[in-house]
Amino acid sequence: MFDRAFFEQHFLEQAKGFARERKIASPVVEFLLDDGSLLYVRSLLQTRENWLCLQAHAEDGPRQIYLLYYSIKRITLHAQAPAAAKPRDVGFQLG
Q1: 20 by DSSP, 3-state: which?
Q2: Nearest one of 95, 78, 5, 11 to 40, comparing CA atoms
Q3: Beta partners for 75?
Q4: Cα 51 from Cα 17, distance rounded (Å)
Q5: Do 40 and 29 meet the contact criterion of CB atoms below 8 Å apart?
Q6: Which end of the chain is more exposed for a tag (fewer CB within 10 A), N or C?
Q7: Cα Rg, the chain, nearest whole Å
Q8: Please, are residues 40 and 85 in contact by the beta-carbon 8 Å criterion?
Q9: pTM of the full predicted structure?
């Protein structure tokens, strides 16, 4: 299960390391949620004790989403956009 400590202490470094290893500017970050939906995350905006706020790619542009940590089932880092994603809907800001 993901929690605040994971996102504050480990996630960004893992994403940066992934990008460095694959020699890419930014990874594609995909969140699988407990309802089966996929989010392509642009950036993490805020972490709190039980939830986080992120910016995700959407059809009509970026959108801000609040998630409870337990709703995140899997995080996948990709070097390039997977077939399910539109190329304009991907790319994580490493800051």
Answers
A1: helix
A2: 78
A3: 31
A4: 25
A5: yes
A6: N
A7: 13
A8: yes
A9: 0.89
Burial of 77 (0-12, 13-18, 19+ CB in 10 A): middle
Please say whether the dihedral angle defined by the alpha carbons of residues 73, 38, 51 and 7, taken in this order, is positive or negative: positive
Unique residue bearing structure tokens 């609040």:
66
Tokens standing for 56?
């995700």
Give me the amino acid identity at 2: F
**At residue 48, what is the residue type?**
R
| DSSP three-state, residue 23 | coil
70 CB-side CA count, 13 A: 2
One digit per residue, pLDDT tens: the chain, 95 residues?
Answer: 899 999 999 999 999 999 999 999 999 999 999 999 999 999 999 999 999 999 998 777 789 999 999 999 999 999 988 877 766 656 788 87
